[in-house]
Design a protein that fits this description.
- This protein is α/β, with parallel strands linked by helices and 319 residues long.
- Strand 2, helix 3 and strand 3 form a beta-alpha-beta unit.
- It has a 6-stranded parallel beta sheet, sandwiched between helices.
- Helix content is 52%, strand content 9%.
- It has 2 domains: 241 residues, P-loop containing nucleotide triphosphate hydrolases (Rossmann fold); 59 residues, Histone, subunit A (Orthogonal Bundle), CATH 1.10.20.140.
- Its EC number is 2.5.1.75.
């Protein structure tokens, strides 16, 4: 019996509950909107930001601050250690279990985050992929150690240009995973990504927040400057002994590790964080804009408009 079947059987309601999904590029204001929605709809928030899962990473991942966390109940914020293995499959199961719990006491729940794969895992379910041989995995690891991430990026661009365009190509784990599938199967990784979503035992309303590209970029630059002022350098220095961990191979950390290794100046490292974050935001938008179910609002939204839209669609879905 599949995961969906188990969860559906355990839930005593039938399509009467609503999951509100809030997505958009980094630094656009998803956290503040989700808190307002949680307060108005008397519900709780499930984070789908994979960078915010780790308790050792606070400043560089823009985790909601203490005041924000007190304004609404959050789940999956800094609940894991960088030393623990935690996959998107683990998150799918944990998040669905948590939603079962939340929907037993509330009409609504909110899923918020910019990690498209993790949002899709909850709303659509994960796909099945072929087995990967150890030989393929070890060969790719050796290539990465010998030649760096750039070699793997170019290989992915050649074997699966479609997935290359939307994946975070600086995320070594995801690039290697896609290449493992490409090489083991002889087919593009993206060919195993299905278009049919798994049925969930709750309604889903998707809200996207966006802005003009330059506005997004300006907000990202400002956020990075704030992170630096709040102690990003000190946070990354404290994690330097663990640079090999996958969780730390992410924007905001790897650039400062390069500075600490003597490969760049600090000003350059900070500029690289801004540049790589802007590139990440572009990929986020590419991912989310392919989802026709998302209703987009400008970042200078009127909150009542969003709330009215949600209640209207929730009413229609519940009929």
């Amino acid at each position: 019996m599949g995961l969906n079947s188990v969860i559906t059987a355990d839930i005593p309601y039938s399509m009467t509950k609503t999951l509100i999904v809030v997505v958009g590029p980094t630094a656009i204001g998803k956290t503040s909107l989700s808190i307002k929605l949680a307060q108005n709809l008397n519900c709780e928030i499930v984070s789908a930001d994979s960078r915010q899962f780790y308790k050792e990473m606070h400043i560089g991942t823009a985790v909601p601050n203490i005041d924000e966390l007190q304004q609404a109940k959050h789940h999956f914020i800094q609940h894991k250690s960088i030393h623990e293995k935690y996959s998107v499959g683990d998150f799918e199961k944990d998040a669905l279990d948590k939603l079962t719990e939340l929907f037993n006491k509330n009409e609504y729940a909110i899923l918020v985050g910019g990690s498209g794969l993790y949002v899709d895992a909850v709303t659509k379910g994960l796909d099945s992929f072929p087995e990967v041989t150890n030989d393929v995995r070890e060969t790719l690891k050796k290539e990465y150690n010998d030649e760096g991430i750039e070699s793997l990026q170019q290989k992915l661009k050649l074997l699966d240009p479609s997935y290359y365009e939307k994946v975070d190509v600086n995320n070594t784990h995801r690039v290697m995973r896609a290449l493992e599938i490409c090489i083991s199967s002889g087919k593009p990784y993206s060919s195993f990504i299905t278009k049919t979503a798994k049925k969930r035992p709750f309604n889903i309303i998707k809200i996207g927040i966006t802005a003009e590209r330059q506005t997004i970029y300006n907000r990202i630059n400002q956020r990075v400057d704030i992170m630096v002022d709040e102690g990003l350098l000190e946070e990354v220095k404290s994690l330097y002994p663990y640079t090999s961990l996958n969780a730390l191979n992410t924007v905001g950390y790897k650039e400062i590790f390069e500075y600490m290794n003597g490969n760049s100046e600090l000003d350059f490292a900070i500029s690289e964080i801004k540049k790589n974050t802007r590139r990440f935001a572009k990929r986020q938008l590419t991912w989310f804009r392919k989802d026709q179910e998302i209703k987009w609002f400008d970042y200078l939204y009127n909150f009542d408009d969003i709330l009215s839209y949600i209640k209207k669609i929730a009413t229609e879905q519940g009929l």
